[in-house]
């Protein structure tokens, strides 16, 4: 299935939702007001819009996500790689590592991830 | 409603002069800090908002009321732009709109056009307000999901370039993809906008543009205001920055430059107008010298003084001499006044107590009669007055003392002329002064430029007008002693004035004034009681009438010959306090009108049938049976039946008989 599109400001909302889910809409309104400066109506509009796109579901005022944070992030990266690096992951990694100095621990973690993929693991 | 529209147009026109001045000053003030420019636009706004203004001699606005508010009612619509060149172009066009004279039914076409233009204006205002409301609402919708960055700064993926939105609680909106240093500069710029209250000034400017949308100069002013606001805001930010940071600031400026529509309704955007100009201005910025600021402020104060005030109206103080012993009702100014604004404003001046005042049209062609109005000290009286008509101002004052009293009236909106009637008296001959030279068997002839095809011929017994081979008798005498030409009626054509003797056995002297242009004569006589003779005064050159007791040289009264209330009168004569009544003509016979005074007149209680000699009749329209006429007489009614009036000084028709005119003619 196509992964639902999440805009930047909606992503900010999703971050709050993922952190607090399951959460009531009323509570989300309060959280969004504090952290995003949103009006009540704006929060409800966004909940409805994301519900229609299949990002979350709203059961009688309780909001739960249908898309995990990891999935959303992965999708964002896919899009980024596709758009900016012509679909080439090594080019992306090269660009990424060029500016970000990586620690030994981080390098080890990345190595372990690569090894896992080599073995045919799903993760 | 039309009045509001005309007021707005007038405000727009007077503000346009100010806008032109600001446009010029902007060129001069290139070196001055940019906030001075914004301040100048502020002065324009004050001119546009404030409906009232006081007058000052400093004012450089040519005219505070270019279009008279009652232009659609004016018989001859004219504008007063204060610039003669404009007036002379526009006014003939406007005058061509005027209905043909004497056609009462046709309306001034401006009465149709002004309401139409008014509606077009309202539609324009409504459309712009709607546009503003819709675009504001859509913008609000677009940024409602913007998330708070910190404080009043929000980010949204729907924003392409930064701006400030909101009047009461303004928020800064930024796009998401903005990195640290750019963001810092952009926020500094937008915060400076908020501190400068630009989020108020700009919508205010747009509101004024909405009202004055028909004025192209206003659109130019608004575009320039937007630029000046941005430049002034940049200035405020970079004042605090070093050279290096200025370069970064310019970088941010370029990064955010986005092509936008020029007249966007509301938001203050970072990269809105003239990026090139702004970069240049930031690069060239030097802290202005103190004296530059001082001069700029002085210029602003000067502009405010010269353009926020309205021009001082020309005010004249006119003198009125109330002669010793005067019992007249009204005494008039020597000078005559005329207006181009359809109204004349009068104040009482030195020496004048509370009294009645009136405008008296000197040429009888004036269509409106002017009724007296009470004038109180310190309060003005405004008269409707036809344009291009000359008036004398009269005040109701008697003078029981032995000395002349001098009072003053002040008058505004007028041109003043001093009438030089002396030149208009032309002496033809006067044998009263030299009776020995009387040519009993000769004749005299004279031609006047005013009557080119006529020769006036005098023989001792008759005055003739000779036109080609045809000659008309004007009047006869036994003999005709003297003749003067003088334009008494003010129609530009002189009347022929003579002293004549009349009768056999009982000979009396009379004065006759023959208005050749209108074919009507006036006569002063009181047979058997008084003699009247005409003479030209050697000192002031004017015509005077001497009234002596019959057949003696005992002078009773003397006075200047004048034309007043549609009849020839002698100024200063006691019988000048004429009575006037209105009556209906019942019959016309034997040189008399048989009349019945109208209901409610004092004369009706004295007699219900009065014989009035047909004398001193105003020529047009000619009185006919059934007409209501106004009769001016000495106040004496002889108790016969029908009653009789001896001295009639003037008769004029005030109401034509509608139903029976033709019947009477056919008889």
Automatic annotation (TrEMBL), chain A:
The keyword Transcription regulation applies. Keywords: DNA-binding, Transcription, Transcription regulation. It comes from the Bacteria. It holds the Pfam family Penicillinase_R. Signal peptide: none annotated. Coiled coil: none annotated. GO terms for molecular function: DNA binding. InterPro entries: BlaI_family, WH-like_DNA-bd_sf, WH_DNA-bd_sf. GO terms for biological process: negative regulation of DNA-templated transcription. Belongs to the BlaI transcriptional regulatory family. This is BlaI/MecI/CopY family transcriptional regulator. It comes from Criibacterium bergeronii.
């Amino acid at each position: 299935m196509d992964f639902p599109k999440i805009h930047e400001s909606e992503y900010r909302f999703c971050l709050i939702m993922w952190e607090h889910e399951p959460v009531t809409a009323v509570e989300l309104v309060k959280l969004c007001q504090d952290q995003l400066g949103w009006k009540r109506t704006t929060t409800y509009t966004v909940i409805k819009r994301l519900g229609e796109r299949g990002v979350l579901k709203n059961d009688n005022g309780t909001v739960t996500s249908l898309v995990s944070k990891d999935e959303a992030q992965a999708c964002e990266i896919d899009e980024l790689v596709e758009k900016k690096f012509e679909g080439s992951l090594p080019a992306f990694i090269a660009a990424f590592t060029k500016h970000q100095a990586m620690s030994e621990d981080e390098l080890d973690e990345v190595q372990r991830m690569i090894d896992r993929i080599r073995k045919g693991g799903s993760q | 409603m039309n009045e509001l529209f005309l007021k707005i147009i007038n405000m727009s026109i007077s503000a346009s002069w100010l806008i032109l001045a600001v446009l010029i000053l902007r060129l001069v003030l290139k070196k001055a800090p940019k906030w001075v420019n914004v301040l100048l636009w502020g002065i324009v706004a004050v001119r546009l908002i404030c409906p009232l203004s006081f007058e000052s001699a400093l004012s450089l606005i040519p005219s505070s009321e270019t279009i008279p508010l009652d232009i659609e009612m004016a018989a001859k619509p004219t504008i007063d732009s204060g610039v003669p060149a404009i007036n002379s172009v526009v006014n003939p066009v406007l005058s061509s709109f005027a209905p043909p004279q004497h056609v009462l039914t046709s309306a001034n076409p401006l009465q149709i056009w002004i309401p139409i233009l008014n509606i077009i204006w309202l539609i324009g205002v409504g459309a712009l307000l709607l546009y503003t409301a819709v675009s504001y609402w859509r913008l609000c919708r677009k940024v409602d999901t913007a998330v708070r960055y910190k404080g009043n700064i929000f980010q949204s993926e729907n924003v392409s370039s930064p701006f400030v939105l909101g009047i009461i609680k303004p928020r800064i909106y930024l796009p998401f993809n903005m990195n640290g240093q750019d963001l810092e500069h952009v926020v500094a710029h937008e915060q400076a906008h908020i501190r400068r209250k630009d989020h108020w000034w700009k919508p205010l400017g747009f509101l004024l543009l909405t009202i004055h949308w028909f004025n192209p100069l206003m659109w130019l002013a608004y575009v320039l205001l937007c630029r000046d606001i941005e430049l002034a805001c940049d200035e405020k930010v970079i004042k605090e920055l070093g050279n290096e940071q200025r370069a970064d600031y310019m970088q941010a400026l370029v990064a955010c430059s986005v092509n936008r529509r020029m007249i966007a309704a509301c938001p203050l955007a970072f990269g809105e107008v003239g990026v090139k100009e702004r970069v240049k201005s930031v690069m060239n910025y030097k802290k202005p010298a103190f004296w530059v600021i001082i001069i700029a402020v002085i210029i602003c104060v000067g502009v405010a003084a010269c353009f926020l005030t309205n021009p001082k109206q020309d005010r004249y103080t006119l003198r009125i001499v109330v002669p010793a012993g005067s019992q007249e009702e009204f005494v008039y100014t020597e000078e005559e006044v005329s207006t181009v604004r359809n109204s004349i404003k009068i104040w009482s001046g030195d020496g004048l107590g509370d009294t009645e005042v009136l405008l008296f049209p000197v040429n009888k062609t004036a269509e409106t009669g002017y009724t007296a109005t009470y004038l109180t000290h310190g309060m003005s009286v405004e008269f409707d007055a036809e344009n291009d008509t000359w008036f004398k101002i009269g005040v109701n004052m008697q003078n029981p003392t032995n000395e002349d009293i001098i009072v003053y009236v002040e008058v505004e909106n007028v041109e003043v002329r001093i009438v030089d009637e002396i030149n208009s008296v032309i002496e033809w001959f006067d044998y009263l002064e030299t009776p020995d030279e009387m040519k009993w068997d000769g004749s005299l002839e004279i031609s006047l430029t005013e009557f080119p095809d006529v020769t006036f011929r005098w023989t001792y017994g008759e005055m003739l007008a000779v036109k080609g081979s045809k000659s008309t008798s004007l009047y006869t005498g036994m003999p005709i002693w003297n003749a003067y030409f003088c334009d008494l009626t003010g129609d530009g054509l002189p009347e022929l004035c003579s002293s004549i003797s009349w009768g056999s056995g009982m000979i009396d002297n009379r004065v006759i004034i023959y208005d050749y242009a209108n074919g009507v004569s006036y006569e002063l006589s009181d047979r058997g009681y008084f003699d009247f003779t005409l003479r030209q005064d050697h000192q002031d050159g004017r015509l005077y009438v001497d009234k002596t007791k019959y057949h003696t040289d005992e002078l009773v009264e003397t006075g200047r010959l004048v034309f007043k209330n549609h009849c020839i009168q002698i100024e200063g004569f006691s019988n000048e306090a004429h009575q006037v009544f209105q009556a209906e003509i019942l019959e016309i016979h034997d040189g008399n009108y048989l009349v019945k005074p109208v209901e409610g007149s004092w004369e009706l209680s004295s007699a219900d049938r009065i014989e009035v000699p047909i004398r001193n009749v105003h020529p047009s329209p000619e009185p006919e049976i059934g007409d209501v006429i106004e009769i001016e007489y000495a106040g004496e009614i002889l108790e016969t039946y029908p009653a009789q009036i001896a001295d009639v000084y003037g008769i004029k028709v005030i109401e034509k008989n509608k139903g029976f005119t033709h019947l009477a003619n056919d008889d």
